[in-house]
Amino acid sequence: ATMSGPVSQALQAELLAEVRRQGIVVWLDKDASYTGFVDRLAAEHEGGDFPYPVIGFRGSFLETLFALEAYGSGYEKHSLVVHMPGFNEDSIRTTPVLELYAAGTRFRKALDTLVRQAATGRVLPDEVEGFLRDNPTLEKADEWLALSVSKRTVGLEALLDSSGPTLIVEALGNKGGPLVGRVTTDEEAGALRSYLHKLTGMDDEWLSFAMGDPRAPILDRVLSAFSAWVLCVEYVHDLRREPHLAALKRLRALSKPLVEAAKGIVGQLRRSHPEAYAGLADEAESMLDIELKAMEPEDLGQIDTFREEENRVLRGAVEVLKEHAWARAADWAKAREGERSFWLHRDPVRRRAWNLVAEAAAFGKILAEHPRPFEGLAHFEEALARYAESAAPVDRAHRRFEQEWLRRLDTQMPHYGALQEVLWSLRQLHRTWVDQLTKDFTRLCKGEGFLPPPELQQRTLYEQVVQPMAFGDEKVAVFLVDAFRYEMATELVEDLRAMGGGAVVDLKARFAELPTITSVGMNALAPVAQNGRLAVTGALQGFKSGEVTVRSPGDRAKAMGNRTGGKPGLRLTLSEICDSSPEGLKRKVKEHQIVVVCSSEIDDAGEANVGLLTFDAQLGQLKAAWRHLQTAGLKHAVFTADHGFLLQDSTTAVHQFGKATDPHPRYVLDPHERAEAGMVPVPLSKLGYDGIGGYLLLREDTAVFRTGTVGASFVHGGNSPEERIIPVLTVTRKRAESSSLSEYAIEAKVMDAAFGFHRLQVRLMYAQQTLGFVGARSIDLDLRVPERRDIRVTVKEVTGAGSIKSGRIQSPVGDAWTEVYFALEGAADERVRVEI
Predict the structure, then answer these.
(1) Alpha helix stretches (DSSP H) within 599-655
(2) Which pTM was predicted?
(3) What's the rounded Cα separation, in Å, for the pair 600 and 618?
(4) Tens of pLDDT along 560-581?
């Protein structure tokens, strides 16, 4: 059963929905407007016609508490309605019902709001307001609205009253749609205008402002004015200040139900008829030229009703980035993430511009939050702790920032010149930051010595970390990753922990040997130190340990395996691991206790100046290789590096030292101690090296020496924390990984190029799945040109079901398609096949 009147029916429906959602509902009826309604509702519950118990306070708290006893203390969450006439949020706190109030949810409903909601679309707004001026009761409101509704006529008015909002949306989306042929005369247009006035408040004053071309059909004119009305209602009620245009100012005074009805129509039109919405919005925007030009980005809200709103906010976001107002730019970008902005969903080029705004704001913010991490350093242990806490997040954000800007910024982009200014400004800020970080670290090294304590040295890592993990004949994978920066390891840690399986993943840090080059760092990772010192062969080409010389990947694997199990370690590359079948890999590792995984991909890409576009793919390969080794039976792994690196750009200072062939980019080997400005001489003997004399000359900042190589974006060899601090990432599992596998099929469709980029659609489906295996919800995909390393594929944007993370396509497993926009770069303009 339902209450007899339409206003009571609306109230009952809202109350029912609230109880279903919340359970306990405490109704604060400050003006005691609903006592009779509640008593009738309680009677309906007694008769079985209302599903939830209704308890009304009628002057006695004792009686109310007795009535509530059957429903516990409130902790059991019985669904019920407790009506408290005369009480508000403050006065209820002095009553015995407070405990129940705290356990439940508050319900309030002003009678005038209820009447406006129930009458929306049924009665003209002026008539509603006139009725409310007499302060009616609920009973009077029921009588009045029932009488008003009973005056419905047949034909168009009855059709609109029964399914008006749906008809209107279809009419707006399909050039009149179901109303074509029904609205051809002034009388029929008047009925439509009257209904639209009742539904959203559109009045004759607006019609005279927005009716458009008098020669157009009457239906087109009414719908054109109405679409402008609902769009402007949404726009005005999203603003953070008063509109400038006089015709819009009065829209602020519309009642909430009318506003919600207008916004509902706009939202449905956007979802169901996007092309029609775009045309109607552009048409309405042409009437608001003065209004939108006068608006500042700060005035606009979270919804870009009109195209020009998004234009103005993007322009403003780029400008505030130039002023280093990171938080403001971040807020504007966040409001336009994902599907929130209709216009960005239709324009991937502008979406990429907003992505760059978000990246710039995030990087600027983190730089400002950690201005000088190494200030006042006293010990090497403190340096590692501070780096992990404050500097590594900046380095990671900087790499991500450079990757995303390289991937996304291009000349098609709006505000391209201004965005380049933002890029240059942030690079300068970062250069100042990293120079100061390096100077502070150099100051510590001058005071404490450039060789840290043994427990923090690279040369002791094998004995102190790997050897204990191999205790009891346990197999250990040692990943020797060239140029694996500490901040990269923080990203890999997240991926490894997400793999689950009960693994203990731990990340610590050590200091690489100097200079931070591969021939020093990689060979020092083998067990070659004797009494804490290293016997150098050649000009820092390797190290001797007794009769053994270690200078190549094979030498390292042999030395590690002999030290641990008396048998050379097995040396594998990432591709050898990933290309092996599970059974084949299991056979390879069976006889070896130490498996040395050699990876030079990060360093190779960096030296080739393509690192920023490939670093994330290399991290994905490391994770994949460890997954394969786990299924082959390994439970322990150590991921570490020979050195890190610095990213270079136009802000890098370049200094002359002798002839261009004398120095390396970040260090000089010299027989003499040189005291030049900005340079630090370090005796090689003080670094614990035997068999070599002279000095290592290092910059105290991140400047490079002029070597004749131009345009390098990646350097190492010096003493910056980015080059010097290496990760020691350990993974330990209690049991071997199950070898259950799932096979996926990739489907792809070639699409027409758009916005200057190639385009395709992809989706992932299960091809075969083993019993008991829980498949991944999403899989990372990449694009490449087979057998053509000279051609680079850059993913620019991803829309649809999937997403993009650090240049990788993340595709869900299922029926939904992901749309990928990408570019191809190479020396020649030719057609090639792209592999997913």
Answers:
(1) 601-607, 615-631
(2) 0.78
(3) 10
(4) 999 998 899 999 999 999 999 9
